[in-house]
Write a structure and sequence with these properties.
Number of strands: 19
Bound molecules: ligand C2E, calcium ion
Radius of gyration: 34 Å
Strand content: 15-25%
Length: about 550
């Protein structure tokens, strides 16, 4: 106490703290020092006392008379002999300097938008967590989180909406993750969660599950309420990898696997994913090349009238004829094409090729059939989309009413206003619009009923094996009935057996597509089928 009294008794000390000399004499000064700083202040000062000539340097927060805290920096020198010890202090107020320092440190370690720890601080905490886990034998889980619809929301609603979404997403994550664990934003729409010191990898799984569920609820932004589900990848030390850098990379790989699995889900890392990741990087470079080198091929799958068994349309389905991998299925590269932004030229290529083929069929005297072409949500929201469709069908010379564009239910509902506008433009051009994979999303037809759509395609997950699944058959039955009330043409996808087809016939479904009649086939083969006008199967009675 003696030391401290000296410390603040000096005139400078008095001025800073606001106390009078009398007050200082009476009060317990130690109590005015911030509890966290008391120990170190005492240690440093008594240290100096024991060693004459040594300069004691102390910094501590001090409670001022006006109830504010200031930070004092004091240098104490021990003078005088053993009979009369004396310390001389030189103190100054460094509150401002410390605050500036704090701000700079905060900025260096935090993301300005969300206030969450940034990549740097996250790396720090991860290092500490790993060091502890090495000693204790506990586990450290890393969750990589990516918002599934961030780009779309950011692109279509503007950056301020995007920013709002990121802040809201950060808040949501912090609510889920227990205190002591870290939520950080490490880039664009990428967040990571660090769960340290757990006994089992299940802890990470539980949090991953909770995050996915929490992100299914809409976000309230100023522009309205929006859905942005999350894809989450989990990597665990020491089960999966054993250093910080690989842990992050591994969580990232698992996150991409979750995206590939259809988004809105989580995946725990497996070694097989790693090979896939290597594959993807290679594929990316190759895909950009493939479009220019004409390696993409359009296949066609017939659409059959259930009433008379004739081919009434074909769906264009793209394949990649890869020089070494052979024929690559679209699910292997369409999501990638969307991710890296080449879906727009790729989609335009498919549309152009399909239109040219269809015009050629007619020129060669084959019966005219409807041509269905898949459109990705990225194309749909592209500002030149309508223009591009108009130009392509005009150049090819295709009758617009023969063209039907397919957009998935999920894509159609991403931005209802955009969908409505595009649907109206297409209708004016005379082009048909079909809602693909219907039922796979979570919407009711109500949202779609006032759009000028022409066709509803029931998702094949409801159709294949429909007789053995009561809930699927109930859903399909009501979709057909409801669609008919809205005057829509109903196509069932994924018909693999006579039983599937018989069921649909009994419910008055209009058309079907599926392996039962034909797989998607190359141009030469679809021409043969068109020439016969039907496929070689029995139709329903
Ligand atoms: P989709 O639009 O739902 O196309 C139907 C998919 O179901 C096709 O797969 C088709 O081969 C498959 N299929 C048809 N009948 C049956 C059946 O009876 N049983 C089973 N199990 N499957 C059946 P594919 O050709 O592999 O295409 C997969 C997806 O890739 C398509 O799903 C579509 O979303 C996308 N895709 C294909 N071509 C394009 C394209 O040119 N542009 C865009 N954006 N996406 C495309
Ligand atoms: Ca389709
Ligand atoms: Ca489909």
């Amino acid at each position: 106490n003696w030391i401290l009294r000296q410390l603040t008794e000096a005139p400078a000390g008095l001025r800073i703290t606001g106390y009078t000399e009398q007050e200082v004499m009476k009060m317990g000064l130690l109590d005015r020092i911030h509890p966290d700083d008391q120990r170190s202040a005492m240690q440093n000062l008594t240290g100096a006392l024991e060693e004459p000539g040594k300069l004691a340097h102390v910094e501590f927060r001090f409670h001022k008379k006006n109830d504010e805290w200031c930070t004092l920096e004091s240098f104490g020198t021990f003078i005088g002999g053993p009979s009369k010890p004396m310390l001389i202090f030189n103190s100054r107020d460094i509150t401002d300097r410390n605050q500036a320092q704090d701000t700079i440190t905060h900025m260096a370690y935090h993301d300005a938008l969300t206030g969450l720890p940034n990549r740097l601080l996250f790396a720090d905490r991860l290092d500490i967590a790993l060091a502890q886990a090495r000693r204790s034998g506990e586990k450290v889980s890393i969750l990589g989180i990516d918002l599934d619809r961030f780009k779309i929301i950011n692109d279509s609603l503007g950056h301020s909406a995007g920013d709002e979404l990121l802040v809201a997403a950060g808040n949501r994550l912090e609510k889920i993750v227990r205190e002591g664990n870290t939520v950080a934003r490490i880039g664009g729409d990428e967040f990571v969660v660090l769960i340290a010191g757990t006994e089992s990898a299940d802890d990470g799984l539980v949090v991953a599950q909770r995050i996915v569920e929490a992100f299914r609820l809409p976000f309230q932004l100023s522009a309205g309420s929006f859905y942005a589900t999350a894809s989450v990848g989990l990597a665990v030390y020491p089960d999966d990898v054993d250093d910080a850098e690989s842990l992050l990379r591994t969580a990232d790989i698992a996150m991409y696997a979750a995206k590939e699995a259809g988004r809105d889900t989580f995946r725990h890392y497996t070694a097989a994913m790693h090979d896939r990741e290597a594959n993807w990087l290679e594929l990316e470079a190759e895909l950009r090349r493939a479009i220019n080198e004409n390696e993409l091929v359009v296949y066609y799958q017939p659409q059959i009238s259930i009433g008379d068994g004739s081919i009434v349309g074909v769906e264009a389905l793209v394949r990649w004829n890869h020089p070494t991998r052979g024929l690559v299925a679209p699910m292997e590269f369409i999501p990638l094409a969307e991710e890296i932004g080449v879906i727009v030229p790729l989609g335009a290529f498919v549309l152009r090729q399909a239109c040219e083929d269809a015009v050629q069929w007619q020129k060669d005297g084959l019966p005219p059939v409807r041509l269905a072409v898949n459109i990705s949500h990225r194309q749909f929201s592209d500002q030149y989309f309508i223009e591009s469709v108009r130009r392509i069908i005009k150049t090819a010379g295709l009758e617009p009413s023969l063209l039907e564009l397919e957009i998935t239910e999920t894509a159609a509902l991403r931005n209802v206003e955009r969908t409505r506008a595009v649907a109206i433009d297409l209708a004016e051009m005379g082009v048909r619009l079909s809602i693909d994979d219907f039922g796979a999303g979570s919407t009711s037809l109500r949202y779609l009923q006032d759009f000028p759509i022409t066709t509803l395609k029931i998702d094949r997950s409801f159709i294949t094996g429909i007789n053995n699944n009561a809930s699927n058959s109930a859903i399909a039955t009501s979709v057909i009935a409801l669609g008919h009330q809205l005057n829509l043409n109903i196509i069932a996808e994924g018909v693999e057996t006579q039983e599937d087809l018989d069921f649909l016939a009994s419910r008055d479904c209009d058309e079907y597509q599926g392996f039962f009649s034909s797989r998607p086939v190359p141009n030469t083969q679809i021409r043969e089928l068109l020439a016969k006008k039907r496929v070689a199967t029995k139709t329903a009675a």
